[in-house]
Amino acid sequence: MKKEGFEDGLLEYGAMVKRGRGYLIENTGKIIAAITAVVAVLVTFTDITFFGIGGVEFTSTLAVLLLSSYVIYFSLEDAGERLGEGSDSFKAARDAYECVRLRIKPDMIPALRAFCTDYASSELKFRRSSLLCSLGYSEAEYEAYKGGAAFDKRAKRAFRGADRLRAVSLSPTTLLTSVRQGGEELRNPEKTRLPRLALKLLPSTLCMVLTASVILTARTDLTPSVLADGILKLATLPIVGFRGYESGFAYATGPRCAWIETKTRLLECFLKQNEC
Questions:
Q1: Whether 247 contacts 72, CB under 8 Å
Q2: Best label site of 75, 182, 241, 272, fewest CB within 10 Å?
Q3: Nearest-5° angle of CA 218, CA 225, CA 220?
Q4: Within 10 A of 48 (CB to CB), how many other CB atoms are there?
């Protein structure tokens, strides 16, 4: 009985945490609006003075706030993306993809390469035909233009736009790799490992350089106006943080989830063709 009660408590706690996260994401706009309202109140009841651009205090404060906002945004964007990966829709898309991916056997890879090439070619033809149709032209007119036939300037612009379309990069690696990766099949990840690590460490490195060069002196004139000024300057940071958190969550449950579902459908289409 105690074990069942403990498990029920864990389940209830997990559901409560999930509801809390969902509430935070759903009400990000309201939270930002509330912070903006507080800022507006501070501005209304205080005197506003703008420093000249280029002043020492202005530039140092701006540097700290900009760097802090970048670090906060990208950190919370990553946290929001991790939260999105735990959503029911993302898990369902990922599970369906894994089931289909595991059905691809090694001896199917040559056929999958041919499928990728054919699909990319047909998808390009579809986009080109759709573009021409939306502009009021047909495939026959486009082929005539390619053959040297004369057309007016408007038609030439449309046909040149159709010429600029390129096929998507699609390979077995793209379809069979669950992590985010380019379309090349034979690419050693060690070659790009150091640049990727350097990019990830860049915000932290900049923050370390700044904090190492800053000398802090305690202020003795902590009047209400000074406090209001500090709150006004810092008010943008939670707004940036909430935006980053929401952006990461929306990216995971939106574009990433849709991309996984697209790969699932393509693999299902390949398996259906391969079974025939």
A1: no
A2: 272
A3: 20
A4: 9
